[in-house]
Amino acid sequence: MHIDSAADSSPAKPVWLFELPGIRWDESDALRARQQLSDLDLDVLTAVSEEETWIYAPAQHRRATEKSDESQLLLATMLGADINALPGYRHRSLDRLLSLGDVTAGRRQPWHYTSQTDIPEHVENEFNRWFDEEHLPQLAGVDGTMHAARYRTNGSPRYIACYDLEQREIQGGPAWRTAIATPWRDRIHKEFLKPRRLMLKRL
Among 58, 126, 141, 145, which residue's beta carbon has the most beta carbons within 10 A? Predict the structure, then answer.
């Protein structure tokens, strides 16, 4: 299926990303978290190659995204744990820069591929132009990529891109490799700092 790669111009809602290294949830864990916070639309995923769980949650208030006590309370509620006995985790707020494709269809896909990096200040403007004008649109146009989005975070790595896929093999497949094989990508890619890529399975 080939998606409509029109940009989503609707107002972006603030999002929290919780990363739990060393913890691999299953479907029952995800169900428990959703039951604990039934008023929030949680997107729960577990990494394929690492022991790690990710949770995207809508931020209730913009100011709250900067308060660690708010994130601790939310995670404690999801885990059904005491706030003073939380496992190690990372928390970042995400500001959406660009969204392509169908968000709702994307949330129904089993695979969620992510790529994140910091970037030197002297090439940051070009990095953002490359991502918006070439990289994200070309990957969003690969058959089986139902939704693609990129965000600026309040932590490190500063930029994260996400792709909701019908099949895991789409990432790295022939069409994917063709989409990323450009001179502009080769030039910008050399400037990446602390890049990290992770395939996750949606629960």
Answer: 145
Higher-pLDDT residue of 63 and 58 is 58
Q: pLDDT band for position 64 (50/70/90)?
A: very low
Nearest to 128 by CA among 95, 102, 105, 172: 95
- According to the CATH classification, is domain 97-202 in 2.60.40.10? no
Report DSSP letters for 108-146, one per residue: T-SEEEEEEEE--GGGHHHHHHHIIIIIHHHHHTSTTEE
Q: Taking the domain 15-93, which CATH number applies?
A: 3.30.70
pTM: 0.89
Residue type, 187: R
Give the strand pairing for 111-118 and 159-165: antiparallel
